[in-house]
Amino acid sequence: MSDVRRRHIGTAERRARLALRHRLAPTARATDPEEVAASLVALHGTDPATVFLAVAARLADPAKAVPETERALYEDRALVRMHGMRHTVFVFPTELTAVVHASTGLTVAARERASLLKDMAKAGAPDAAWLAEVETATLAALARRGQATAAELAADEPRLREQFVYAAGKSYEGVHTVSSRLLRVLGVEGKVVRGRPLGSWTSSQFRWAPAPEHPELDAARAQADLLDRWLRVCGPATEADLKWWTGWRVTEVRRALSAVGAREVTLDEGTGYVADGDADPVRAPEEPWAALLPALDPTAMAWQRRDWYLAPELRGDLFDRSGNVGPTVWWNGRVVGGWAQRADGEIVWRVTEEGARREAEAAVAAEAGRLRGWLGATRVTPRFRTPLERELTA
């Protein structure tokens, strides 16, 4: 992994890699959602609209984003929405489900199940044997239905409606329903996934579906596989970036880096890593480019250390208090502002850097028109709203 002839990869080259590998430069755009998802490894799925907006920003024909992504998710099942890194919901290529489950899901799943059983015991709710019976019946009902809401599953298995008090006597005391907690546990355990929403593609109300069958992989090998895939998309990256994105312990990150033969390079902020065979220089796209990326976009959220593409003074405007990024305007590999959609459908944007504003105005305006053109009558409000997005829509 270490190399005394370490190459330096500067900010300009990192931005060039981002432009091409994240399908943001016009010459690098993809033809379908499967190609986008494979290129990025994972699409953030916490906000359902993000998946479709992120795909559209990277397609040669953005009008295909909604019908083709719905096809891939719900008909062909080439893509699947499931829990992954950092206990976050993502959309992955279906062939990656086994890798994601073994590399990031098992530890979280054990913790979630233990937490559920502990909370139920404290509340005097039925024991683990009772919960196991409910789980078996729930999975059988879901298999019969194919897809179902929690309410539909509770009609088949009434014990899912049982409630118990959570954190009794605390300021955050609440009442939990067995269905909400159990289905969440089954999700992180890789037994169920999120299916077709009840409403349109922007809806956060969804059905559950059985998870695609997949082999049980060795956790260390799966971690090496996931890290290698991610480095080929987002490398170079620091150890801190890798630890943050995966949610692993630093010892797991280092073990995976060694297993894949990752190469050390130098970055402006210190030591970074690229995948084996990926240290050669990458040239920037010949033409300058602009992009309007949605809230929680996988590019904006890919690295923990972001100064090379995001000026620190912009963070207060573009992130909420929990660290969720809002809609961003990009110019040649860096974030230069934000955008929003008003109630009348107009796409409004602001570039805060004066030099970039002069250079990028026409290109950003064209991207705003491209976005407005395929959105049509659809209105999109980010799930996590940020200061600039609120200001632009006021």
Q: How would you sum up this structure, described in words?
A:
- The protein has 394 residues and is of the alpha+beta class.
- It folds into two domains: 15-77 and 274-393, no CATH class; 95-210, Arc Repressor Mutant, subunit A (Orthogonal Bundle).
- It contains 14 helices and 13 strands.
- The protein has helices at residues 11-21, 33-40, 48-56, 65-75, 97-122, 128-145, 150-156, 178-188, 219-234, 239-246, 250-259, 315-318, 354-375, 387-393; strands spanning 43-44, 79-83, 89-93, 163-166, 174-177, 192-197, 206-210, 263-267, 270-274, 290-293, 328-331, 334-341, 347-351.
- A four-stranded antiparallel beta sheet has the order 10-11-12-13, sandwiched between helices. The chain has a three-stranded antiparallel beta sheet with strand order 1-3-2, with helices on both faces.
- Strand 6 (192-197) and strand 7 (206-210) form a beta hairpin.
- Helix 5 runs antiparallel to helix 8 (178-188) and helix 9 (219-234) crosses helix 11 (250-259).
- The mean pLDDT is 94.
